[in-house]
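queue> pop job 88
queue> type: inverse folding (structure -> sequence)
queue> payload:
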């Protein structure tokens, strides 16, 4: 039982030390203008505006993004990719 108490105390001491070092450190980021503009550009590509938003009966909110503005198409290998969709429901109706 003594080893459990020591291990818990050691764990708490390590957590306290890590927390105090993080609080004592300088939390500001020194970014150059180039790095700042690159970060802003990357954030603009990630933050796509949604077209429609709806909530289901469980309270979960879904944001619908335009199919041609999906974040997956921002990948360099998919830059000139054309979207190919087969409408199964439409084909079944015809």
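queue> result:
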């Amino acid at each position: 039982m003594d080893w459990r108490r020591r291990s818990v105390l050691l764990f708490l001491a390590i957590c306290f030390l890590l927390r105090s070092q993080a609080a004592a450190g300088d939390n500001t980021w020194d970014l150059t203008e180039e790095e700042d503009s690159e970060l802003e550009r990357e954030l603009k590509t990630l933050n796509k505006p949604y077209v429609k938003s709806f909530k289901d009966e469980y309270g979960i909110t879904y944001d619908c993004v335009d199919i041609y503005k999906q974040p997956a198409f921002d990948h360099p290998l998919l830059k000139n990719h054309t979207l190919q969709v087969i409408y199964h429901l439409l084909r079944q109706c015809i």
